[in-house]
Amino acid sequence: MAKYVYFFGNGKADGKADMKNLLGGKGANLAEMTNIGLPVPAGFTISTEVCTYFYAHDRKYPPELKAEVEAAMRKVEEAMGTKFGDPKNPLLVACRSGARDSMPGMMDTVLNIGLNDTTVAALAKLSGNERFALDSFRRLLLMYGEVVMGLKGHKDHPFDHILETAKEKQGVKLDNELNVESLRWIVEQSKAAIKKYTGKEFPTDPHEQMWNAIGAVFGSWMNDRACVYRRQYAIPDEWGTACNIVAMVFGNMGDDCATGVALTRDGSLGTPGMTGDYLINAQGEDVVNGSRPTKRIEETLGQDMPKAYKELVDVGHKLEQHYRNMQDIEFTISRNKLYMLQTRNAKRTGFAAVRVATDLVEEGLISKEDAISSRFIPAGDLSQLLQPVFDLEAKKAADKAGKMLTKGIPAGPGAATGKIVCSPQKAEQMKQADPNAALILVREETTPEDLRGMKAALGILTAVGGVSSHAALVSRQMGKVCIVGAGEMDIDHHTGIVKVKGLTLKEGDDLAIDGFTGEVFAGRIATKPSEVVQVLIKQELAPEKSAWYRRFKLIMDWADQHRKLNVRTNADLPDQAAEAIAFGAEGIGLCRTEHMFFDHIAEMREMIMATDTAEREKALAKMLPHQRNDFAGLFKAMAGRPVTIRLLDPPLHEFLPQNKAGQEEMARILGKSVAEITRRVEELHESNPMLGHRGCRLGIVYPEITAMQARAIFEAAVQVQKSGVKVLPEVMIPLAGFKKEFTNQEKIVRQMADKVFAETGTKVEYLVGTMIEVPRACVTADEIAAAAEFFSFGTNDLTQTTLGMSRDDYGPFISAYTDPKKADVLAADPFATIDQDGVGGLMKMGVEKGRQARPGLKIGICGEHGGDPDSVKFCHKIGLNYVSCSPFRVPIARLAAAQAALGK
Amino acid sequence: MAKYVYFFGNGKADGKADMKNLLGGKGANLAEMTNIGLPVPAGFTISTEVCTYFYAHDRKYPPELKAEVEAAMRKVEEAMGTKFGDPKNPLLVACRSGARDSMPGMMDTVLNIGLNDTTVAALAKLSGNERFALDSFRRLLLMYGEVVMGLKGHKDHPFDHILETAKEKQGVKLDNELNVESLRWIVEQSKAAIKKYTGKEFPTDPHEQMWNAIGAVFGSWMNDRACVYRRQYAIPDEWGTACNIVAMVFGNMGDDCATGVALTRDGSLGTPGMTGDYLINAQGEDVVNGSRPTKRIEETLGQDMPKAYKELVDVGHKLEQHYRNMQDIEFTISRNKLYMLQTRNAKRTGFAAVRVATDLVEEGLISKEDAISSRFIPAGDLSQLLQPVFDLEAKKAADKAGKMLTKGIPAGPGAATGKIVCSPQKAEQMKQADPNAALILVREETTPEDLRGMKAALGILTAVGGVSSHAALVSRQMGKVCIVGAGEMDIDHHTGIVKVKGLTLKEGDDLAIDGFTGEVFAGRIATKPSEVVQVLIKQELAPEKSAWYRRFKLIMDWADQHRKLNVRTNADLPDQAAEAIAFGAEGIGLCRTEHMFFDHIAEMREMIMATDTAEREKALAKMLPHQRNDFAGLFKAMAGRPVTIRLLDPPLHEFLPQNKAGQEEMARILGKSVAEITRRVEELHESNPMLGHRGCRLGIVYPEITAMQARAIFEAAVQVQKSGVKVLPEVMIPLAGFKKEFTNQEKIVRQMADKVFAETGTKVEYLVGTMIEVPRACVTADEIAAAAEFFSFGTNDLTQTTLGMSRDDYGPFISAYTDPKKADVLAADPFATIDQDGVGGLMKMGVEKGRQARPGLKIGICGEHGGDPDSVKFCHKIGLNYVSCSPFRVPIARLAAAQAALGK
Asked: Residues A300, A302, A305, A310: what is their CA dihedral angle, to the nearest 10 degrees?
């Protein structure tokens, strides 16, 4: 028989930590904490299987569930010595969601279930605190009304309205200042509001309350923001959430009570020592929703509640030792007694991830392999250590100029300069309109509804909330620059006006925020490279002077010990190549030669306008020395590492001016008539340039272009080799879909190589291979590999052709496609992460067929997917030899490759 | 040991007819004719293996070849009683190419090898005819100079020039009027010209002549026109040609000599009875190159040479009985004795093919299966029987108006009206510039160099030459409308002026030619449907009154007995559907619904301009009744046959005016501002519309469009079914590459079906399937087939995406791609014939994976390839259930399907 309900309490639990799939993270850890003797209120977890059943059966429960819940409830009653619904000694419970992976704030919670007019009186009597009892009841009514009865987001905001009216009437500002009379008024008004807005009475039966809350929790798995969140973090819909029913303990019974959220280390930079927020005499969401200014655990909890604080620090240490990871905990202190309500591995920034991972290795808690696992450092988060920070001099100057506005709590390290935007919706729209828009989202506080807007912003700045606030938490996870609790700011999100220290800023004004220090500046501030970049690339900082570099290098060294994939870079210029080498690149996987033509656009245009081969050759001859120089520079920089050079790829019309002024200027420079230019532009116009006259099709129609490029490559190679530097050019024919396309171009390349070697009396080792970027190349990879010496998957174009989807044109439907509430076709943008079933299927075929014809064929990837951790792992899985990505993604690819090799 | 040389002579031969692969068609049939006792001069064939060796070894021969040739030459000498190079009794030989498949006029021939100053004197003495000996020598010098020494096509045309000068000097017009003195002068001038233009002497050594001629014949396998020809008829380069050395027999020894070319039946319409051309006192190419007006065998040979004529007719009959096919023969009559120089299966028009096939069945020579084989009727040639012919009344009127210009020999049946063009190069250019250009190529005569220009023309008209002329032969094979020997025309191809009976026409003027009657008209003449179409579609002609219909029907009936593939049609309108049924269509494989939107463009535009769903639904509601009517019409016409309806596919911008005037008009009609229209047009603009917001992506973003179309389909289906006509709609979701794209749209369709069935109280059987047109759909066909009830390959788009090649943009490179002398990437246009390795590979995968998930999955093809015989055969091979093509291609597809099933 299926077991759906798992009890915990009295020091023993049905579940344990490794049952997260079934019990969710919260449920499994409540069980685990119970088992290891930590103070956890009794309760039970309804498993994720019930959630799955619920959605598969039109929102009905398994028939066995009711009896199991009732049995578990009896055990909770026993453990707590109270009784659910008892008119004299009532048990109250919380009903909380909890999925396998933490999805903070995405799903719903209802506290104080079990209260009604009878039990609230009993609670008042038992606690001797009527105010507390009424405060609990008004919270239940609020949460039940919003979550269960669907009034959340109602345009009238009835509960906010009631609360504000009560405060006004009584003349107080904060919730906890409300007196008994006000609270009683709120309770009655809330009941009336529920009746008015839903047509139904608030149910007085505790069981009815509980079952409806359970239904709401399971229902919240499919709410909009939960779905968005799952997409962002690739959590499958199939997992479902568990539902935890936990006996209430109260942080709102008086000043010897508190509730809080803590991290066992700093979540922003990973510095050791507990950090967090708490509130005296408060309950539940109060801490994270910014309704009152929170206090910081590391600053005042030791004085406020010395015993409980010591106990909390001890528990934190115990949990770190037990879980061998930094923890994020929720607790309530009820009449000076500590209760643990949750623990989970803490979300952290890339900085904190690197620091915690290396520190834990040094503390002997985890192995090096653990440290470089994606659990400790999601590979993509490494990029945070490479992003620019504010230039100290520039910051000083801004300060001197009076641009420093205020200081908040630093919650996401980094430097962000951008335009103020006060509404998440607007941020989202602006980002859609201009994907390069740099935006700073400035808010009183953020809520789970703001998720999409936060994603669109470069940095986040809030007036309210601590390091445990929603804004801080989400920023940590998204790697956004973030400052919270900048309380001096007064933000009107309706008008978009931000006032601070008498200064008025408006939406669109520039703002600079320093996520390391919490400083907020008006205007823009120049950035400088991060410490790691200063050491590696700029060589302006001695390695031993940078602790961040030391940690970064440890991680990279550990990663290199395990990875099987080589990591190359996409670079066209010697300085890019040098940067990439500093980041650990082992070769160039893609040198696009386009810029070489753009750099000599007049000659290029002369060639495009040529009416015969002789004229074209004349123009090409002018480009030869430049290309040769460029290649020589690259070969020198790469010092014997392989350099894959792609021959000219874009359609010729990309090199011609499309507007009248440009065409007139071009006519003047080339001494042609404007009509001639216009005619050529029209002649070269294409309906679908993606599928047009480009790639090897250019070199096939104009073999002299290929010949010139080959000459430039081999002359440069010979020259550099003669200078004593090893060279290894790999000439790459783009867009070949037919073996004969490849061999046509290969022949020109090899003939030119022989010619140059004969002319110079020097031979150079080289390869000729092809870019695999149309499906036909994968399907006939065996034929092509019979001739080609290497393959490189051009997954950008391969994705476009395999899916029949243009990256320039997918805007109008891709958001519907990746939105689980709309079309729900794709889990991720296929141009960011390889579509493994489709494009990946063809890649697999290409690898298999290619190696079938040429065992040991060298195969890489040079599309933008080469720097995406999931795609790197896929490349490892299908047996590629290397990935190639932009220089700043090289460390990420190295780490992802190691994670792939370790399988974790 | 390899055998390279095959002797024939004295009634016995090393080879035989079924050794064509080795000996080429000419060599194998010379051997066969020798074996069956026909009069063939002795000779030997150097096999195609030597040609292969020649190209694989840098144009060298196998070392054994020389000895084998010498041995064979001795046998020829024995058989003929003469000796090669003997100063007194010299053997002369011809050196002729001969590939596996006949490639008429494409490769080179050298006659009279063995002549020099010594042997020419001996020949004069032996024959008692100095004129003949000199004529033979000047022919050798001409052919050797052009073919072996490369002077063919030289800008000075030295040999033409010498011949014309000699005729002028002597004051005669025709070659055969030249006297001994003139011929001697020509011989000396020709030797001098060879020396002058090549710097080399004409070799006097007969062996040197022969070996050089052999080299030229093998070399001609790779000449330009041979390569073009092979591409057109899909002959692999690897086959190579054989080379035949045959003892000369002379048709130019006097008036008891002749040479000719004959068909055992009429090549244009297949009428029984030998036809052909001959010339008295002539040799070799004279008959086909139009240098003298030929005589027609069926008209005068019986009188000119009664004995030889009777023998020729007998031989023709014997050959037909032996080869069980209509033959094309070459013969020489030397002093009243008949010699056979070649026989081969005759090229014929589609009309002749159908008539000969049905006649031979009735004559008991071949089986019905043979008759419908591609050897007897290339499926594509059937289309000639369906093409329009001139309307008799219109022709009479033109005649009355004095538009009839002249009459030639009808050589390719059909009606062609088009613009005069006098140069094949210009024809080719004009066709490239405008693929719809209707051109009539008007030439004095045509040569193999004109092939590309002939291909570009709709009809061909020559002033010189008979039914065996190059123009007639090529037209027969290409299915072009053709008239030859319209001798009253005077054509100046330099100026493009055509004079006939005092009337002057110029290039660009309209001309109408009747390939059934040989009549040539100035201006345009209206056409009417062909006999078959009159019977089947127009029902204006009683079936029993049309012999062509009778034959057509026989072929179709025989084909239907064998084919396994169903044949459907692509049709959007009831009258198209009715036509297709008349041609044998068994369903609609593709109803594009685009026209339904174009027909109500104002509502469509209203919908596109709508800013919300409600507005869109309003506009769609206006379209609903029209679409319902259209579907009802189709269902009625198809009377229970399956009808596959594709939901809206093209991107929305295709429905908006792209120019200013159109936008202004649209603004006026919709009552919107021009700025609004322009903004929407810009918003909908796409960089690569092929890969943009189209197909199911429209229905996913605008589900209301899908809902409206589904409602129209099911309401129409219910209505027609209620009227007592069976209906079988198959709703096709376009462009699905992901299962979820399909299921998203499928759900809307099925929900609407249920709704309509509930509303009307009637259920209709239907299927929901998808079009497979992006590679991803093939790669994940198993997933998609789990939901889709049928597949239909949209091979147009599948080709574009698999090859990364846009049909709108491939112009600038596709000619280089299909040109074996240039890139030589593709044997055929991939949009005409399925790229079997690439696109076909994905189709195969799609079929296998699809049926793996859903055994027995119904799979068809609805791209334009569905009417291409080679593609139909491929579809049969990979196990499709049906092909779908345009109505007029249905008979072709039926025949091709039978040929596929029969494997021949």
From this structure: 150
Q: Which tokens in the block code for residue A296? A: 């910081």
Q: Which two tokens stand for residue A588?
A: 């160039």
Best CA proximity match to A70, nearest among A200, A61, A145, A97: A61
Residue with tokens 């608030």: A202
In whole angstroms, what separates CA A695 from the centre of its chain?
34
Answer positive or negative: Cα dihedral of A120, A121, A127, A132: positive
pTM for this model (two decimals): 0.87
Contact criterion met (CB < 8 Å) for A806 and B690: yes
The interface predicted TM-score of the complex, written ipTM, equals 0.86
A688: nearest CB among B741, B809, B826: B809
Chain A residue with the nearest C-alpha to that of B745: A823
What is the per-residue pLDDT for B232? 72
Return d(Cα B244, Cα A383) in angstroms, integer.
75
Region of residue A262 (left: phi > 0; alpha: psi -120 to 50; beta: else) = beta
Over residues B224-235, the pLDDT tens digits come to 878 877 877 778
Q: Phi and psi at residue A37, in whole multiples of 5°?
A: 85, 15
Query: Facing residues of B7 across strands?
Result: B44
Q: Where are the alpha helices (DSSP H) in A671-821?
A: 674-684, 696-701, 703-722, 739-760, 775-779, 781-785, 795-803, 811-818
Spatial strand order of the sheet with B489-492 comes to B489-492, B497-500, B503-506
Q: Which of A686, A737, A805 sits opposite B804 (nearest CB)?
A: A737
Q: Is A774 on the interface with B (CB under 8 A)?
A: yes
CB-CB contact of B30 with B244 (8 Å):
yes
Q: For the segment A470-508, what is each residue's pLDDT rounded down to a tens digit? A: 888 888 878 899 999 898 999 998 899 999 988 999 999
Q: Does B774 touch chain A (CB under 8 A)?
A: yes
Of A320, A267, A321, A263, the closest CA to residue A297 belongs to A263
Q: pLDDT, tens digit, for every residue of B557-613?
A: 999 999 999 999 999 999 999 999 999 999 999 999 988 898 899 999 999 999 999
Q: Give the whole-angstrom CA distance, residue B716 versus residue B627.
A: 9
Q: Are A358 and A371 a contacting pair, CB within 8 Å? A: yes
Of A864, A898, A897, A858, nearest to A881 (Cα)?
A: A858
Say yes or no for a CB contact (<8 Å) between A816 and B700: yes
Report the distance separating Cα B701 and Cα A882, nearest Å.
39
The token pair at B521 is 């008209």
Distance, in Å, from the CA atom of B431 to the CA atom of B457, rounded to the nearest integer, reads 8
Residues contacting A475, CB < 8 A, separation 6+: A349, A411, A412, A454, A460, A481, A482
B506: phi then psi, degrees, rounded to nearest 5 = -130, 165
B198-236 CB burial, b ≥16 within 10 A, e <16: eeeebbeebbebbbbbbbbbbbbbbbebbbbbbbeeebe
Active site residue B482: no
